[in-house]
Amino acid sequence: MFSKSILPAFISLFLLTVSSPLRQISPGITVSLSPVQDAVINAVITNHGFQGWKILKHNSLLSPELTRTVEIYDSHDHPLNFEGFTYSYDTGSLNESDYISLGVSQSFETTIDLKKIYKFPKGETKFQVKTEGVFEAAPLDSTANTWEEYKNLLPYQQEKVLEINVGIKEAKVEKRMETVHCTPERQAVLQNALQMVAYRANLTAFEAIHGDPETFQRYFKTTLPDERLLVARKFHKIALEADPSYDTEVTYSCGDVDGICQNSKYLAFAMGRKKTIANCDGFYELPVEAKNCHKRDQWSVVLHELTHIFFHTKDHAYGYGGSVRLDEDRALENADSYTLYAQELFQPDCER
User: CA-CA to 249 of 20 to 30 Å: which in 11, 13, 174, 294?
Assistant: First the structure.
């Protein structure tokens, strides 16, 4: 039996013993939010501290999934309804794809499409975006292969509340892009390919900044942060232009224009000045998604042509063998470098 004088000390010792191993420290992590377009924002995470960290992506601002990492308030300071999701993940099989390295004075940038995680009310255009929370982190020199190593909680501060103007127009939800010469069957094929491009280009934008540097190096011959950010922004632009929530200047033809498809080898082509993309008959014979690595399929052909329209990419090399042999300058302006890089992210086990 414990005496009254011993019991409080024992309880304190017990609580210290069973408390969580996570340690909250003050690492000097800041988050800066800035507008990109409509409800799309940039988030820049910067390490102002004196120690580098490996920061876990899951359920944080670094996660590409539609998780609750920011809060949005209307002009009356009422929070908007969250429409994303939360998820559980296997903490026993972490690897390099699950974290980003953030050295001293380094920054990482990611994009968030707020319309995909929040319901914006009709009639409102002005909103405030706020974020606060913690990152789970391990020291930069750790292996960071087990969840137990992420025992540090890094609280972050938002540098300034972000104010955004969001134009909500029902017509934009209904309109993807102008399509011509489309039968119902071909229209359905095109819409499916565009949906795949919108989703995959958005994830590829994230990977361009935070993903495997060796893979990025193979396709673009650089791993400089500025170049990775440039490529990420291009993929995000493609994602927006293919997404049904955004208007676009592109006209998409489900059939031939000006007789160009008379060459039976053509799958699709882009007319930059007219901002028109057309599919030839061969496009509809392609699989929706190729099973073999870097083979042509419908979604990658659409992605390829969109890079021509919006970034004036060239065809310095076509296919994997030639594209990975380009120097940095040509790789960054080669349409297939972007296409093949995106394909590989969704075919990680393919053999070249």
Answer: 294
